[in-house]
């Protein structure tokens, strides 16, 4: 698509303007930029200088438009307009998640459930096309309204699937003609979820679920989260609750949770470890998650033990009987006796049982695993710092780690001793935190007027308030220490962040989890385990240079970013000038509206701020 200015020039000079005409236009635009410069401030404050509030005026918008037109005219003179836009994928890819091709997995010999696992090695073919939204897709409602009401056309969930669901939260959900409504917190009276949360708190000896934080429970891994209502309640208590559920072609728990603005990622308990380091979570929760925990000689329970921090809790709610998928026979439901042998080997203690709910607590004594008792599970050798979808291990992890600290002993903020465990000097950590506070202030002041100018139908005055609720699901694709996530939390932005540590970079994921944030290890040469259109903002600092060093395709990475970003969503890329210019050219092919921002700090770093358009097939 060409800008209105280029179309007008085409009418004046003809379809192929002479070199003289193009040079005349370039000189005119340069003069315009010089004339406007005294009346406006720089586009982006230096992230290394003192942060001052940015005031965007009409002059700034004119200057920015002039600069864009200048760059576009320059591209035309160089013949860049010959690059074709990327085509659109077919309807079959509207909810497509790569690496989960069950048919290909079966043909490759995967069976016994492994055909439903992640196998990116079998998905090497790349279709260079843009995944389009369904015909009925609508932009999600802003937070917090979008937590309670979503458009039914945005998720692949039919009325029959809803009615046949056995989820404990089904009664909280109302399926209307074009919306799915959930009960909000103020309307909950006897909803099951709030009572259930109070029951768990009572069983671990707390007076109320509002005391979870004081008891050391800050992060919760919710396995098989249903429609996400339990996770939504935990978020209201200021806990970080991440949903992990298998890939499902339709009726997906992960897709539904993310559409509601709740943290979620695709993950299976089948044959591989989840992409988290040892000692990551304070609580792991499973309510009717359809996992047979006493199968495979307790291998799934060993994985839970790996993920739990010392003193952490495993909460299991299981029905009396459960129907097996492959046969018509039934299997007895979980009882304390059926898991007693496994939990003793894991040094867990059964805290309480009430009806169908059991709570075990992991030991805080690392020596328990090396005692002379018979039938103990061996301790793993080495560490699992860089494990990435490795086979489930039949050994105990984390016992030799310096991170073996009981959850009750952890403070809200990492002290100098804990930082040194992660190889960080407190001064470096403080400097990084200040950097991201400044960067966030500049990001927000940069995006605010752009969002409002691009959406005039949305409320706004001459000096509109920043759109805190128009961006909610955020992914930091190269999270480093989790500084952006911390800055967003401190600034009280209504967002959550999926922190991603790229494979091959310094593995800071244990630090991110110790800060109470959610995060995963991921190889950006492969697709991310999520559904299309699940994030509002993607941020990547230095990722393009990193993936280039890993011999990954920048074009395929940007296509993957387009897949997981919702229409009208935003991308902020920070990298070197040459890398950003290459990305800007590719962004034009993907139909993104892209703007290069000079940081004005004398460095070679540039920002590329892009917006994905709402494209329908």
TrEMBL record:
UniProt record, GO biological process: methylation
Family designation: Belongs to the methyltransferase superfamily.
Subcellular location: Endomembrane system; Membrane
Gene Ontology molecular function: methyltransferase activity
Entry's transmembrane regions: 21-39
Domain of life: Eukaryota
Topology with respect to the bilayer: Single-pass membrane protein; Single-pass type II membrane protein
E.C. number: 2.1.1.-
GO cellular component, one term: endomembrane system
Signal peptide: none
The protein, known as: Methyltransferase
Main location: membrane
């Amino acid at each position: 698509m060409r800008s209105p200015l280029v179309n007008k020039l085409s009418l004046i000079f003809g379809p192929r303007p002479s070199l003289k005409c193009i040079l005349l236009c370039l000189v005119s635009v340069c003069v315009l930029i010089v004339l406007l410069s005294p009346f406006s401030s720089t586009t982006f404050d230096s992230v290394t200088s003192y942060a001052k509030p940015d005031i965007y005026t009409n002059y700034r918008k004119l200057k920015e438009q002039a600069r864009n037109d200048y760059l576009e005219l320059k591209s035309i003179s160089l013949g860049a307009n010959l690059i074709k836009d990327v085509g659109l994928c077919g309807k079959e890819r509207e909810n497509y998640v790569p690496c989960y091709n069950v048919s290909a997995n079966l043909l490759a010999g995967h069976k016994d459930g492994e055909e439903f696992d992640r196998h990116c090695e079998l998905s090497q073919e790349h279709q260079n096309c843009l995944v389009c939204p369904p015909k009925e897709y609508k932009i999600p409602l802003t937070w917090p309204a979008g937590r309670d009401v979503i458009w039914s056309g945005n998720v692949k969930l039919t009325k029959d699937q809803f009615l046949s669901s056995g989820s404990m939260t089904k009664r909280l959900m109302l399926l209307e003609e074009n919306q799915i409504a959930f009960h909000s917190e103020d309307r909950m009276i006897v909803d099951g979820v709030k009572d259930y949360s109070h029951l768990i708190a009572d069983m671990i000896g707390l007076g109320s679920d509002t005391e979870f934080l004081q008891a050391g429970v800050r992060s919760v891994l919710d396995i098989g989260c249903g429609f996400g209502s339990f996770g939504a309640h935990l978020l209201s208590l200021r806990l970080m609750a991440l949903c992990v559920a298998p890939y499902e072609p339709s009726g997906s728990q992960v897709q539904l949770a993310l559409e509601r603005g709740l943290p979620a990622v695709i993950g299976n308990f089948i044959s591989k470890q989840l992409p988290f380091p040892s000692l990551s979570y304070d609580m792991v929760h499973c309510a009717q998650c359809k996992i047979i925990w006493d199968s495979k000689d307790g291998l799934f329970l060993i994985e839970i033990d790996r993920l739990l921090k010392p003193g952490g809790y495993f909460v299991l709610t299981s029905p009396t009987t459960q129907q097996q998928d492959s046969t018509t026979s039934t299997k007895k439901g979980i009882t304390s006796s059926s898991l007693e042998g496994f939990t003793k080997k894991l040094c867990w203690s059964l805290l309480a049982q009430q009806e169908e709910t059991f709570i075990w607590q992991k030991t805080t004594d690392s020596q328990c695993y090396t005692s002379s008792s018979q039938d103990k599970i061996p301790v793993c050798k080495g560490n699992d710092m860089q494990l990435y979808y490795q086979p489930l291990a039949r050994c105990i992890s984390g016992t030799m780690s310096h991170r073996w600290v009981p959850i009750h002993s952890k403070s809200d903020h990492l002290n100098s001793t804990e930082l040194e465990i992660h190889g960080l000097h407190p001064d470096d950590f403080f400097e990084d935190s200040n950097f991201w506070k400044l960067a966030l202030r500049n990001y927000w002041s940069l995006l605010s007027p752009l969002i409002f100018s691009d959406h005039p139908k949305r409320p706004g005055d001459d000096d509109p308030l920043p759109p805190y609720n128009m961006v909610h699901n955020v992914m930091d694709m190269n999270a480093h220490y989790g500084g952006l996530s911390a800055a967003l939390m401190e600034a009280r932005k209504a967002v959550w962040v999926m922190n991603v540590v790229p494979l091959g970079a310094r593995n800071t994921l244990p630090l991110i989890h110790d800060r109470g944030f959610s995060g995963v290890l991921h190889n950006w040469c492969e697709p991310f385990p999520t559904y299309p259109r699940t994030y509002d903002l993607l941020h990547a600092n230095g990722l393009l240079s990193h993936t280039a060093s890993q011999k990954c395709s920048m074009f395929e990475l940007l296509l993957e970013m387009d897949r997981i970003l919702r229409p009208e969503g935003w991308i902020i890329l920070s990298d070197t000038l040459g890398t950003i210019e290459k990305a800007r050219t590719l962004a034009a092919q993907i139909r993104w509206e892209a703007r290069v921002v000079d940081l004005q700090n004398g460095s070679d770093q540039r920002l590329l701020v892009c917006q994905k358009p709402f494209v329908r097939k």
